[in-house]
Amino acid sequence: MLKRDLLELCLLHVLNQGDQYGYELLRLLHGVFPDVQESAIYAILRQLCREGATERYQGETSGGPVRKYYRLTKEGRGRYDALLTTWRETRDAVAALGIQ
What we know:
Blueprint: H1 3-16, E1 20-21, H2 22-32, H3 38-50, E2 54-58, E3 68-72, H4 74-96
Antiparallel strand pairs: 1-3, 2-3
Helix pairs in contact: 1-3, 1-4
């Protein structure tokens, strides 16, 4: 599984737990993958929206700028399940070789 696929899986995993706004997604993923540029994370998120795996909407304002929230769609849940299966197969194959 390539790093881009892994980032996508992580984005979908977080959204599978509930709606998130863009900056929070960026902060979470950048905290785990500090070597990945913010623009790469946003590019994946935009692609997921274009492909129908996620939806974007504007949240309520509380005196600050309008937040753009993201949520997983039915198609996104299917994609998440498929990537999760691939991840588990890859993890198990690597572990079978003794790589931990």
